[in-house]
Amino acid sequence: MEDPLADELRNHWTDTELGRTFALLIIANEHAAQGRPDRAVAIWQQLISEGGRAGDSARVDYADYLFLANRQSEARSQLEAVMTDGRIYASAWRSAAEMLERRGELDDALLWYEIAADNMTAEDVTNTHRVRALVTGRRRVKWKLGLPLDGIDLLGEQGKDEVLDREAELHDLLRLPTVSNGRIEVWDRSEFDDAVRWRKHLIGGNADRYCHMVERELRDRKQRVTIATWTYFGLQDCLRDVRTRHDELPDGRRVAWPPPRNQPCWCGSGVKYKKCCGGPLPAAEPVPSRADPSG
Fold first, then answer.
1. 187 forms bridges with which residues in the sheet?
2. N or C: which end of the chain has fewer CB within 10 A?
3. Judging by DSSP bridges, how do beta strands 254-257 and 225-230 pair with one another?
4. Which of 132, 170, 171, 176 is nearest to 154 (CA)?
């Protein structure tokens, strides 16, 4: 029996390695983009009538078209039909979730991602590119919604929003250090190097001023504290891997505060504490803003 869409396949250049379904979906979307919706709809409806994974993928593309045409109820009917078929590992599920995510319907997108990722194991994620993409999407949406990430989410790739948020959070943490749970995290003194211009811009150019700011915070708390120091490359390692927690620094030092007065200062200057940060401090200077890290 001749393929009812054989003319479409013959009349359009397509990569034969794509397979019939994928080629037809590309052709249908091309028709829709170039103002030939009737031909696009005919392809989608034929694939839907054939059922299976091809039908699911066609329903998702058709739903996207219907949303753009402001035919909301029809679009959602197509997505409901995909959801009820139970083929949750099919690429159509990821496409539906990504479409809803693009539309800003994050709660609905997360529902698709959650159902698809239910009972998923780490082995599933590492062995299948399609599953990894699902997990990455779920992680991306959960981060946007401010929801905690679980162990499976962490196997996906970080989204752009997550990278920017975590970088801003860590920079703020180190720009204005505060004591939390008996711990304070600060830049290592070795990072204040005027010879490295990018480092001066991102971290600050005055080590003494920064260390005095930290010392004031420590004295105000009047308690024993662990000082954990960061290097810039350690920060980059942490940003690349969200599984690296703040208490598992990839480098840097851990120092107990206050040190004995005749011992080297916690800041790493090599001078005795009593003659460095443990001595009289100059008057406090204005707190640097995020736009002015030179403090």
1. 230
2. N
3. antiparallel
4. 132
